[in-house]
Write a structure and sequence with these properties.
Blueprint lengths: L4 H28 L11 E6 L2 E2 L3 E3 L6 E2 L1 H12 L3 E6 L5 H7 L4 E7 L2 H6 L1 E2 L4 E3 L1 E6 L15 E5 L3 H8 L3 E5 L2 H9 L6 E4 H11 L4 E6 L4 E7 L4 H16 L2 H10 L6
Parallel strand pairs: 1-5, 1-6, 10-11
Antiparallel strand pairs: 2-3, 3-4, 6-14, 7-14, 8-14, 9-12, 9-13
Helix pairs in contact: 2-8, 2-9
Length: 267
């Protein structure tokens, strides 16, 4: 039996609607595919980093490929999650703005965990642990604790928290511009010690080889650094933590630490 013209038109319209629905559904599915973590770009981890912060995030010789301790670890994490990596280099003063505006998924730039930041952001499992240390000459046997700094002379930057720690320990502090000047005074025997973070010391010894210096004592409350995320990225944080656990278990993170610091600095 022949169908009426109106019936044919209705059938055609129904098919068109169905096809439109399928096309629309397919497009939505494609945009969400591989984006269960709420990424800025599906399939890609968009990472904010400075690119000028050696040895964590830098360009070798100033113009080579982006590399560094943080860069290597977040790249390994992305590989575990089967994601590409897109590094967005930015100055530290603006690095959190990317998270706030949703332009980046994560910061990989030695972000230390503190209560103020925890109010605004989520953090991964720490992948860097760095206590404060007293650095002295190899031949020094007078300083083995922070109490031993009482009456001794240390070289410190006036704007650092290490200045306060040295002063609170009873040291006479000689002001310097930074680590390089402090080490120079120490090796010359013009000061007894300098207080700084362990990563700075390890980076120095890795870069310069035998330095004639040693760590005399460490603080009990190390600084912890982790990847930082916006508050709405809880699922991504959980996935990153899982990847970090695997990378710790298989020795990858320890190897990356050895590469840049001559030691596993993740714990």
């Amino acid at each position: 039996m022949r169908r009426s013209p109106l019936a044919v038109l209705a059938a055609v319209a129904a098919v068109a609607i169905a096809l439109t629905g399928c096309a629309s559904g397919g497009s939505s599915g494609d945009s969400d595919a591989g984006n269960e973590y709420g990424l800025v770009k599906a399939g890609t981890l968009t990472v904010a980093t400075e690119g000028t912060y050696r040895p964590f995030s830098f360009h070798e010789d100033g113009s080579g490929d982006l590399t560094g301790y943080d860069v290597d670890i977040i790249t390994a994490v992305a590989k575990k999650l089967d994601l590409k990596v897109d590094f967005q280099e930015t100055q530290w003063d603006a690095i959190f703005a990317g998270l706030d505006s949703g332009r980046t998924d994560v910061i990989a730039n030695q972000v230390s965990i503190n209560p103020e930041r925890e109010e605004k952001y989520l953090f991964s499992t720490p992948y860097t642990t760095s206590p404060g240390v007293i650095v002295v000459k190899d031949s020094n046997s007078d300083i083995a604790s922070f109490a031993d700094l009482n009456g001794k002379t240390t070289a410190q930057s006036l704007t650092s928290n290490w200045y306060t720690l040295a002063e609170d320990s009873g040291a006479k502090v000689e002001a310097v511009e930074g680590w390089a000047q402090a080490v120079e005074l120490l090796t010359q025997g013009r000061v007894d010690a300098t207080v700084n973070d362990k990563l700075t010391y390890l980076d120095y010894t890795t870069t310069n080889g035998k330095s004639g210096l040693k760590i005399a004592a460490e603080t009990d409350d190390p600084s912890l650094s982790a990847f930082a995320f916006a508050k709405n990225k809880a699922k991504l944080v959980k996935a990153v933590d899982g990847a970090l656990d695997e990378l710790t278990a298989d020795g990858t993170i320890a190897k990356i630490g050895e590469k840049y610091f001559g030691a596993d600095v993740s714990k």
